[in-house]
Amino acid sequence: MHLEAVLRLSAHHCKPAGLTLQYGTAGFRTKAEHLDHVMYRMGLLAVLRSKKTKSVIGVMVTASHNPEEDNGVKLVDPMGEMLVQEWELHATNLANAEEHELQTVLTNIIKQEAISMQVESCVAIGRDTRPSSENLSLAVLDGVIALESKYQDYGLVTTPQLHYVVCCRNTDGRYGEPTVEGYYQKLSQAFKDLVEQSPDCGAEQRCLSIDGANGIGALKVKEMEEHLQPILLLQLFNDGSKGKLNHACGADYVKVQQKPPEGIDMKPGERCCSFDGDADRIVYYYKDCDDRFHLLDGDKIATLISTFIKGLLVKVDLKLNMGVVQTAYANGSSTRYLENIMKVPVYCAKTGVKHLHHKAQEFDIGVYFEANGHGTVLFSKTAEEQIRQLTNMGASEEIRKAAQMLENVINLINQTVGDAISDMLVIEAILFLKNLTVQKWDEMYTDLPNRQLKVTVSDRKVIDTTDAERRTVKPPGLQEKIDELVKSYNLARSFVRPSGTEDVVRVYAEADTQENADALAHAVSLAVYHLAGGVGDLPRPL
Ligand code: G16
Asked: How many whole angstroms separate alpha carbon 176 and alpha carbon 169?
């Protein structure tokens, strides 16, 4: 095989000697200036994956919630899912091969995966609004061109839009038309069909304020707005016209800081939401008459959506099993509510949509959400078929109506991956249909006070976890220390894990009061600092 062009073009995307990067929670992610060679090589890998699967493969240039200076890459598999985990190793080997090893590593992947280089391939490329994204997506393109593959450059798109078009392309349009306009048409039609039955709500209920994180989500929601009027009236803040991407705004900031983003004008009782930097996460919030901030995160979203779906399933009387998948970050109150009140089985997966998605596929209807607002609902083929049959058959009017609503949810939810825009429309539709205010939704259960902190250590790989990241097995003594600290507080829980997107260790704690959650999080941070090689200043009390 001739890899001449690959090596020739690689000279324009040289790997800095000695630099090694790890495939993390959602692909490679680091400072943008270290990523040119990675992008080129992910272009190459996407072509190989495309040949192997005989499908279109997606490459999204984004670092999502990370600061503007960072960038990253997410690879999208044929049905719109994240790259299959067995290929993460190929990605790591390829990204870390020194220039002189590139040919060997590529040839090894081709051999190991028995890839026929004669097979046609096609790569779909997308990017977010970061200043570095355009050039990095050109590097991806160079990799694709080096292996003489077909491609389509979708330009500026949200990550979920790229996942959507990849799935559409590989299902011959059955999932929808493979364009951004097709995405708007599909979602807005399903949204309108779903809310058709809702009681007439006032203008107040129809208004939603959106914090676009100064990112791609803001651009895309602006494009979509006209498709949603007059049902939904959107007010967009942090639209990218002045502020910096994810700076003091966006879903991650709001969730971690537990406060509103800067740049949003919030009136008491008004429903607001924040997207993250590539619009695959969403959180809701409002402030009450006493100016108190209330956050409705991924756990509250999962509860709202699964309660709604369960209600419809009872009406249609289908014996479909439904499960909810969360991570260790899920608030203890949400898990108890789902299990004890709603009687829905709940599972805990490792952080990262790839893990949650996988688990959710085991159910007829799998609802998965990370507390940070990343999630969706998956319907099995059986579930989709049974629901569709009921919409056509001579079932009673009530059953037919409920089945129709479920079908609209299937069309509205982006089943390929968590999607801020799609999730927002599902939530808005449920609130309309149930005539629920954001306050009433919030009252479903009360979150346990919690705190998330970050600790910088010299090498975060010294921490190893087990039990879906709820316990550490390394370094020695850390878990014992956490256990001892947790015992001193009521209703307390805490865990630590190395982040797969930032160079930090994440600390989570919850307890009966905010003071206790804060104190526990601080004490655990100190334990991490001392036992796992903390660098810089000691973690300070909150
Ligand atoms: C990515 C993943 C999420 C994960 C988040 C944080 O989100 O897709 O599943 O929760 O990173 O991961 P970590 O704690 O390992 O840094 P995004 O929105 O940044 O792509």
From this structure: 9
Query: Would you say the CB of residue 374 lies under 6 angstroms from ligand 1?
Result: yes
Cα separations (Å) of 361 from 346, 411, 412?
14, 17, 18
Question: How far away, in angstroms, is 448 Cα from ligand 1 center?
Answer: 22
Measured torsion, CA atoms of residues 43, 44, 47, 48, in degrees rounded to the nearest 10: -140
ipTM exceeding the 0.95 mark: yes
Q: 164 in a domain, yes or no? A: no
User: Is the domain of 426 the same as that of 479?
Assistant: no
Nearest CA to ligand 1 atom 5: 352
**Residue 421 CB partners (closer than 8 Å, separation 6+):** 158, 160, 187, 217, 220, 221, 224, 275, 279
Q: What is the pLDDT of residues 66-82, one digit of tens each?
A: 999 999 999 999 999 99
344 and 431 fall within a common domain: yes
The single-letter code of the amino acid at 267 is: K
Q: What are the tens digits of pLDDT across the range 384-421?
A: 999 999 998 677 889 999 999 999 999 999 999 999 99
Is 302 found in the same domain as 237? yes
**Crossing angle of helices 397-412 and 298-316, rounded to 10°:** 150
Statement to judge: residues 269 and 369 lie in one domain:
yes
Residues 43 and 67 in one domain: yes
Report how far ligand 1's centroid is from the alpha carbon of 26 (Å). Answer: 6
In a domain, 254, yes or no: yes
User: Is the CB of residue 159 below 6 angstroms from any atom belonging to ligand 1?
Assistant: no
Residue 307, ligand 1, Cβ within 6 A: no
Give me ligand 1 centre to Cα 352, in Å.
6
State the amino acid at position 19 in one-letter form. L
Instruction: Output the CA 24–ligand 1 centroid distance in Å.
Output: 9
* Mutational pocket test of ligand 1: of 23, 25, 369, 495, the residue with most ligand atoms within 8 Å of the beta carbon: 25
The rounded distance, in Å, linking the Cα atoms of 285 and 258 is: 10
Pair (465, 425) in one structural domain: no
> Is residue 184 domain-shared with residue 315, that is, in the same domain?
yes
Determine the length of the chain: 542
Q: Whose CA is nearest to atom 4 of ligand 1?
A: 352
Q: Domain total for the chain?
A: 3
Average pLDDT rounded to a whole number, residues 224-253: 96
Single pTM value for the model: 0.97
Question: Which CA distances in Å does 327 have to 45, 322, 343, 390?
Answer: 30, 17, 18, 34
Closest-CA residue, ligand 1 atom 20, reads 64
> What's the rounded Cα separation, in Å, for the pair 412 and 184?
10
Catalytic residue among 50, 64, 334, 422: 64
Q: Which 3 state secondary structure label does DSSP give 234? A: strand
Q: Is 64 annotated as catalytic?
A: yes
| Domain that residue 145 falls in | 4-156
Q: Is the beta carbon of 297 within 6 A of some atom in ligand 1?
A: no
